[in-house]
Amino acid sequence: MVITTTIAADSDEFLYCTFASRYVRSPVPRFKMPEKSMPKEAAYQVINDELMLDGNPRLNLASFVTTWMEPECNDLILASINKNYVDMDEYPVTTELQNRCVNMIAHLFHAPVGDDETAVGVGTVGSSEAIMLAGLAFKRKWQNKRKAEGKPYDKPNIVTGANVQVCWEKFARYFEVELKEVKLKEGYYVMDPVKAVEMVDENTICVAAILGSTLTGEFEDVKLLNELLTKKNEETGWDIPIHVDAASGGFVAPFVCPDLPWDFRLPLVKSINVSGHKYGLVYPGVGWVVWRAKEDLPEELIFHINYLGSDQPTFTLNFSKGSSQIIAQYYQFIRLGFEGYKKVIENCMENTRVLKGGLEKTGRFDIVSKDVGVPLVAFSLKDSSKYSVFDMSENLRRFGWIIPAYTIPADAEQIAVLRVVVREDFSRSLAERLIWHIEQVLEEMDSLPIQMSTKAATVKKQLESTEGQKVVKKSEKEMQEEITRYWRRLVDGKRIGVC
Ligand SMILES: Cc1ncc(COP(=O)(O)O)c(C=O)c1O
């Protein structure tokens, strides 16, 4: 494509400017704002060209986040892209749509609100912000109670599984709450409710259960947690509540396991977060947090401002944000309805089964994810003495697939898995093609002439030099453990990339 600029005089320098090359002859601005302007077409071309090197979102199987919406909704998004959500007086309809979304989600999660009663909740940028808000509400409620009882209130803690998403670690660090994690073990990769309840004490502001563990998609047993915690509260006189992090499972369970009690049907569940941009089927970033009742959200956390028109209550970490995602969420709710969401999720489940079946057929993998859970397949290599899941992940990139490999947190670090998230836009034919590519990668890596893949060999060499070990002959199992340990060090920071 030839860039034709809007500069009036078609001087030679503009006439011969193809692919914005005239502007990228000097380095692309990276540190300082450029002194001079450039034509809009050139700016577009420069940026568009660089962006071509990003991965293809539709093939990004690392993420739960929505990558496809209907064109009608894309139109709505574009039309509202310039509306600041916080200007509630100026955009009252947008505010009304967010309130309707909160009501619908609260009803979906069985909040004890009447059919035409308003529920308590707020739209956020995602589940992370929602979790910060829910966590703050628990912390403040606990502090108020402790103050009233004349007891110390400076050492709050929260109990979770070691499988929590990084946003819980952020909450703990940013808002000075100790994170007490229940360790996992080989073959059991979610929070054990028995151990969680053993860990609570008078300073526990809440126990957070996950509906759809990020790592394996498995639903934690919130019902058992509720039972055990109720008993503990009765015995001790404490009043420890439950938060459910339903970031991905909140828009899965209601449609495919409606009889599973994980939500406000359980009395100790006081708040729930869900990501609208995951199985809520909206582009990033929208999330939601809903509270069981008004008294579960301390009034002093809500700010009231009036300089934009009327009195506006706000309880979010950021002030301004776009309206588009809220509008898109409302579109999905009324466009799909319960029936539509059910069909989409059932389809995802079916494609998950196809993928799982194909992987099992190779005889080469252990499936780590469970049948009841978020539609994803997490799987490990039965034999990783020759190459690892990290090698596989890298090789699958060749076909365009982005499939993360990672190790499970403590105490199951020795398990390394690949995870494929099945979203609405991951069709049956893509699932079949992926299986085919995985078989191809297996075949190619099996036929490698060396004992281990190059990557594993490099890792081993580095292991030996970094640890100053003498080269001693190790068993295949020991070798694999070392390689996994090394990979863990390499990818530790990357766990945050799994979302
Ligand atoms: C269980 C869980 N909680 C919280 C989050 C954070 O969600 P968000 O990306 O919407 O902030 C994720 C992201 O994957 C998640 O899986």
Structural class: alpha/beta
Mean pLDDT: 89
Tell me the radius of gyration: 25 Å
The DSSP helix count reads 14
The percent range for strand residues is 5-15%
Spans where pLDDT lies below 50 across 5 or more residues: 1-10, 467-471, 491-497
Distance between the termini: 37 Å
Helix content: 25-40%
Q: CATH superfamily of the largest domain, please?
A: Type I PLP-dependent aspartate aminotransferase-like (Major domain)
CATH top level assignment of the largest domain: Alpha Beta
CATH third-level topology of the largest domain: Aspartate Aminotransferase, domain 2
Choose one word for the global shape: globular
Biggest sheet character: 7 strands, mixed
Organism: Manihot esculenta
Cofactor: pyridoxal 5'-phosphate
GO molecular function: calmodulin binding; glutamate decarboxylase activity; pyridoxal phosphate binding
Catalytic activity: L-glutamate + H(+) = 4-aminobutanoate + CO2
Describe the structure.
The protein has 499 residues and is an alpha/beta fold. The protein folds into three domains: 1-54, MYOD Basic-Helix-Loop-Helix Domain, subunit B (Irregular), CATH 4.10.280; 76-335, Aspartate Aminotransferase, domain 2, CATH 3.40.640; 350-454, Aspartate Aminotransferase, domain 1 (Alpha-Beta Complex), CATH 3.90.1150.160. 39% of the residues lie in helices and 12% in strands. It contains 14 helices and 13 strands. The strands form three sheets. It has a seven-stranded mixed beta sheet with strand order 1-7-6-5-4-2-3, sandwiched between helices. Strands 10-11-13-12 form a four-stranded antiparallel beta sheet. Helix 7 packs parallel to helix 8 and helix 10 (324-362) crosses helix 12. The radius of gyration is 25 Å and the shape is globular. Mean pLDDT is 89; it is low at 1-10, 467-471 and 491-497. The structure holds pyridoxal-5'-phosphate. Pyridoxal-5'-phosphate is lined by residues 64, 126-128, 165, 167, 210, 212, 214, 245, 247-248, 275, 287, 499.
